[in-house]
Amino acid sequence: MAELPDVKFLTVAEVAAIMRVSKMTVYRLVHAGELPAVRFGRSYRVPETAVTHALQRPAADVG
Questions:
Q1: Which one of 1, 4, 38, 44 counts the least CB within 10 Å of its CB?
Q2: Contact 47, 8 (CB under 8 A)
Q3: Distance CA 51, CA 40 (A)
Q4: Strand ranges (E), the chain
Q5: What pLDDT shows up at residue 58?
Q6: What gap in Å lies between CA 21 and CA 26, rounded to an integer?
Q7: Taking the domains of the chain in order of start, what are their residue ranges?
Q8: Which residues pair with 47 in a beta bridge?
Q9: Radius of gyration over alpha carbons of the chain, in Å?
Q10: Do 46 and 12 contact (CB within 8 A), yes or no?
């Protein structure tokens, strides 16, 4: 069996708290494909590295 790397998964609520956004915003990012996630049953888990990368990306200019 292949060994899996030590990946830490976060819940949507944890991601929302880290990113300081609502849970609905996290769900929108996941469904839009902007934030990778894995579905476990009826819930999603987001790799911690994906959150780190998302926070390091420059924000789009609005206006």
A1: 1
A2: yes
A3: 18
A4: 9-11, 38-40, 43-47
A5: 75
A6: 7
A7: 9-56
A8: 9
A9: 13
A10: yes
The DSSP bridge partners found for residue 34 are none
- The label of the residue with tokens 């009826």 reads 42
Question: What is the four-CA torsion angle of 9, 25, 56, 53, rounded to 10 degrees?
Answer: 30
| Residue pair 28/19 in contact by the 8 Å Cβ criterion | no
Report the distance separating Cα 26 and Cα 50, nearest Å.
12
Tens-level pLDDT at each residue, the chain (63 residues): 567 678 899 999 999 999 999 999 999 999 999 999 999 999 999 999 999 998 988 766 544
Work out the widest C-alpha separation in the chain, in whole angstroms: 51
Helices 12-19 and 48-56 pack at an angle, to 10 degrees, of 30
